[in-house]
Write a structure and sequence with these properties.
Blueprint lengths: L1 H27 L2 E2 L1 H11 L1 H21 L5 E11 L30 E12 L6 H67 L5 H36 L7 E2 L22 H21 L5 E13 L18 E11 L5 H69 L5 H36 L3 H7 L2
Parallel strand pairs: 1-4
Antiparallel strand pairs: 2-3, 3-5, 5-6
Helix pairs in contact: 2-4, 3-4, 4-5, 4-6, 4-8, 5-8, 6-7, 7-8, 8-9
């Protein structure tokens, strides 16, 4: 009969636990894995969109540079009503006073006549000594740099999102261990009060246990605060409200496998690739600058017609005469222009560009050194984290045994409440250290992935 009752109670407890778990999952939102968090951040984070738009702008720059090979066609059509008083003499180039064609009549009349003009001019550079090709190469280099920037930004955001995910997992494990510590202290307080009421223990033991319970609750509150902050940080990467974030991180609570085949290819790191693209862009811009000091050959052809209501003897035709362009002309020719005195300015710009290339080359070496150093530091951190993670279970087992022994001695009247309180604090801290030690290994693996510029091996290990 008792066995049947115990089985019924156990079944009810299991059903109640399943209902509570389902309700908790419903309130917390849909579970998300670290891979889903990383992929969501790399796809939707605003910084990625900004970088992608820069790629589109650079692609448009290539199309703009290619239009330089096309001929230029300018056309005009106009009609005017104006006087015809022409003056013999020079007028310096300006854009205010319009020019007047025709003979100088020596008159100053305000009588106006109609005038009209229509025409088209075609201009084309048959050759340019490689300048247009160099400009296209420079524009292509700018696009390559923008694409490298996108990949580097995606890697940075992916690493940051993964780090935020691990931080939240660590905060949740800390809350779990702190909650267990509070429950143990509450059980101890109930036992101490019962013994104090029976005059078996002094009232000072109750006060000491209440102080320990308050301290453990404070530790739990701080852990919950850190969890809320970590949840908020992760929400900005995945675009989900903090209260709806529910993690699926079972694999991260275990030790990761040893990445024995991990390789380090510096030249594939997105940060290094981006910096090389910057150097190549600067070199392409220098080449275009060097080709800019050259003669400019332009083949031109024009056809136009004009009409005027004025006659060379000073008379006017009257009416709407001149509105129809009835006098035609055409011309073809080749123009050569050469900015002789621009050499000094171009040379100065070349010197500045060469300095930029040297600076970017030096920065490339700096990035290579930093990435190598980060890789070595990540490997050292990974080795140390694995050793610590192998040691923390021993500490948890020892702390659990010490807590049981201290509790037994206290119940038998051989120990003090101080020993029990110290053993419980040690057990809580050991459980927190054990959980964080495993996550520290994952964090070290993430640092290795960040230095390598490839997060995929890390995600493959974290999500089975």
């Amino acid at each position: 009969m008792n066995m049947r009752r115990h089985c019924s109670q156990a079944l009810l407890l299991i059903l109640f636990s399943q209902v509570v778990t389902a309700q908790s999952q419903q309130n917390s939102g849909v579970g998300i894995t670290i891979r889903e968090a990383v992929e969501t951040a790399a796809r939707n984070y605003p910084a990625i969109t900004v970088s992608q738009q820069q790629v589109d702008a650079a692609a448009a720059g290539i199309q703009l540079a290619r239009t330089a090979y096309l001929p230029r066609v300018d056309s005009i059509a106009q009609a005017n009503f104006a006087t015809r008083n022409n003056v013999f003499g020079l007028l310096l180039p300006q854009s205010v006073i319009p020019s007047i064609s025709g003979p100088v009549l020596g008159t100053n009349s305000l009588d106006g006549v109609w005038g009209s003009a229509i025409g088209v001019t075609v201009s084309w550079e048959p050759f340019d000594f490689g300048l247009r090709g160099a400009n296209i190469t420079a524009a292509s280099a700018a696009k390559t740099r923008s694409e490298a920037t996108v990949k580097r930004a995606q890697m940075d955001i992916s690493i940051a999102a993964a780090d935020a995910f691990l931080t939240l997992v660590a905060a949740q494990e800390t809350v779990r261990a702190a909650q267990a510590g509070v429950e143990r202290t509450q059980s101890l307080l109930q036992s101490v009060r019962a013994q104090s009421d029976a005059q078996l223990r002094p009232g000072a033991d109750v006060s000491r246990t209440e102080a320990e319970l308050a301290a453990s609750r404070t530790q739990l509150i701080k852990a919950q605060q850190a969890q809320d902050v970590a949840r908020t940080v992760l929400s900005q990467f995945i675009g989900v409200a903090p209260e709806r974030i529910n993690l699926s991180a079972t694999r991260l609570l275990q030790l990761p496998p040893d990445p024995s085949n991990s390789t380090f290819d510096l030249e594939r790191n997105p940060a290094f690739v981006e910096q090389n693209a910057i150097v190549n862009q600067r070199k392409a811009e220098l080449e275009a600058l060097e080709k800019s000091y050259a003669p400019k050959f332009v083949m031109q052809g024009t056809a136009f017609a004009r009409g005027s209501g004025a006659v060379t003897d000073g008379t006017r035709l009257g009416g709407v005469s001149g509105l129809a362009p009835d006098t035609q002309n055409y011309a073809v020719g080749l123009s050569v222009t050469f900015p002789i005195l621009d050499r000094a300015a171009i040379h100065a710009r070349e010197s500045g560009q060469e300095a930029n290339i040297r600076a970017e080359t030096a920065r490339t070496q700096q990035i290579a050194t930093e990435l190598t150093s980060r890789r070595n530091a990540a490997n050292a951190a990974l080795d140390g984290s694995r050793k610590i993670a192998a040691n923390t279970p021993v500490a948890v087992a020892a702390a659990m045994t010490a807590n049981q022994q201290a509790s037994t001695r206290y119940q038998a009247g051989l120990g003090t409440i101080v020993e029990v309180a110290d053993s419980q604090r040690l057990l809580t801290q050991s459980e927190i250290d054990d959980a964080l030690a495993r996550l520290s290994v994952w964090r070290a693996l993430l640092s290795v992935a960040a230095s390598s510029g490839d997060i995929e091996p890390f995600l493959a290990s974290a999500v089975p």
